[in-house]
Design a protein that fits this description.
Elements (H helix, E strand, L loop, with lengths): L2 E11 L2 H11 L3 E7 L2 E7 L7 E5 L4 E9 L2 H13 L5 E2 L2 H7 L3 E6 L5 E6 L18 E11 L2 H11 L3 E6 L3 E5 L7 E5 L4 E9 L2 H13 L4 E8 L5 E6 L5 E6 L17 E4 L14
Parallel strand pairs: 1-4, 5-8, 9-12, 13-16
Antiparallel strand pairs: 1-5, 2-3, 3-4, 6-7, 7-8, 9-13, 10-11, 11-12, 14-15, 14-17, 15-16
């Protein structure tokens, strides 16, 4: 498969300070800054690479780009041809964009709901260890997955499954599907919804103790815990969710399973083994087609 993993997410945000406070003080995630054009962009350090989440100051809260890491230049060319054959226009990223991403090559296209999707070669290893606020080591270990909700579920499934060659791992009828691009249970999930949005973005942690300590800090700092601690039924991850300053969820989790080529996609039925109580109605409790 050409796409190796989820690399990074860029967000337009109206309150960078609130984001950096949540990431640093509550979630124990270090933040650096970089110049991009005339803006100063906040970069969330989840691991030893340059960044996994970029926060661009804006007058609106919207996804800016969704970045996937591709294995080789040959695979990048092959995927570009598949996208072109499927009717997508693929553009080259600018030198400034490559520099910010830490990529050697970068191409992008617009998905069926209007989001910019990037395919990047290379990741800049920026450090040997990640700076954490006191008491938060070892903390986050990487970027796990995101859930994209949209009224164009069929078109997005066609893009990710048929064009970009993601594999279906499992689903919950009639409108929630989980896809993988490596052995991790899923790197993206697609859901049916009336309007397009990122439902949540997941930060991987090394252990249940790391998740538990983040949960304690979230409670102590008054962070808006939107979904309580629990274990998912399908990937078995233990996690909780906070609502971030842009209005969607951040999932803080660990322990998701890996799957092999012999895995058989199936309907996993109920969403959770235990926990994960929602403060508001769960939009995927009874998804509609």
């Amino acid at each position: 498969m050409g796409i190796r993993k989820l690399g990074y997410v860029g967000l337009n945000v109206t309150d960078v300070d609130a984001w950096t406070d949540l990431l640093g003080r509550t979630l124990g995630i270090g933040v650096t800054t970089a110049k991009f054009g005339t803006d100063e962009v906040a970069l969330a350090e989840l691991d030893e690479f340059k960044y996994r989440v970029a926060l661009h100051p804006s007058t609106e809260d919207t996804p800016r780009e969704l970045g996937w890491i591709v294995d080789t230049p040959r695979e990048l060319d092959r995927l570009t041809q598949r996208l072109t054959d499927a009717g997508f226009t693929v553009e080259e990223g600018s030198a400034e964009e490559r520099e910010l991403r830490g990529a050697t090559r970068l191409r992008w296209f617009t998905d069926p709901v209007g989001y910019r999707v990037e395919l990047a070669i290379g990741e800049a290893r920026a450090r040997t260890g990640v700076a954490r606020p006191d008491g938060t080591n070892p903390g986050a270990t990487g970027l796990g997955h995101f859930v994209l909700a949209s009224p164009k579920l069929d078109e997005l499934r066609e893009l990710y499954e048929s064009v970009l060659e993601f594999k279906l791992t499992d689903y919950r009828a009639p409108g929630l599907f989980f896809f993988r691009c490596n052995s991790t249970h899923h790197s993206i999930a697609l859901a049916n919804a009336q309007t397009a949005s990122i439902h949540h973005l997941e930060f991987e942690h090394g252990s249940i103790d790391d998740v538990g300590r983040a949960y304690d800090r979230a409670r102590a700092n008054g962070a808006p815990i939107s979904i309580s601690l629990g274990r998912h039924m399908n990937d078995k991850a233990i996690s909780f969710y906070v609502r971030n300053p842009s209005g969607f969820h951040l999932e803080i989790g660990c322990g998701g399973i890996d799957v092999g080529d012999d895995w058989v996609p199936h309907d996993f039925g109920v969403p959770d083994v235990w926990g994960h109580h929602h403060t508001n109605a769960n939009p995927f409790a009874s998804p509609t087609s």
